[in-house]
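Hi all, long-time lurker, first post. I run a small reading group and we've been trying to get comfortable going from sequence to structure in the token notation. Rather than ask abstract questions, I figured I'd post a concrete chain and ask someone more experienced to write out its structure so we can walk through it together at our next meeting. Sequence below, copied exactly:
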Amino acid sequence: MPRYVEDRRMMDGMPGLDRRFGAGCPFCHIVRGVAPARVVREWADVLAIRPRGGGVTPGHVLVLPKTHVPDVAADPVVSALTMRHAAELAAEVGDCNVITSRGTAATQTVLHLHIHVVPRRPGDGIQLPWTAAPQTQTGVGAGAERGSGPGRPGHERRAGTARPASR
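-- Answer (accepted) --
Happy to help. Here is the structure in token form:
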């Protein structure tokens, strides 16, 4: 069962709480109008705001659904709608990073789906938070330990090489 359904079920017994909003969620507070935010654009189901502190580059925005969804995997329909609006903003910006994270290990700090649209320019000094996976003693990246192969992350096939025969 998706986590957002469980989260909403936990809120069922709370009087006066709209099930579309997460209890204590700062983005839900913004959507409800009980917390301040600089709104950049608003659609029927999605909101674009400036991050607190202005963001990492001028023009950095957060695009978030008005419905509480904890992360990109919790509700694919809401995630797709939110990404559609992030893509509209990205088209206006030009070169940019469009980023979302799922889970604390992936650097998600607010458990409400949000997509960063970060305008970029040459020499802006912004570095992405990713680094190469450490090599094991065999020289194979750490991703291989989880098993890699066709259809799995980290699998690469050189152009011109044959695919394995289907069984």
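A couple of things your group might point at:
The CA atoms of residues 5 and 74 lie 9 Å apart.
DSSP finds three helices and five strands in the chain.
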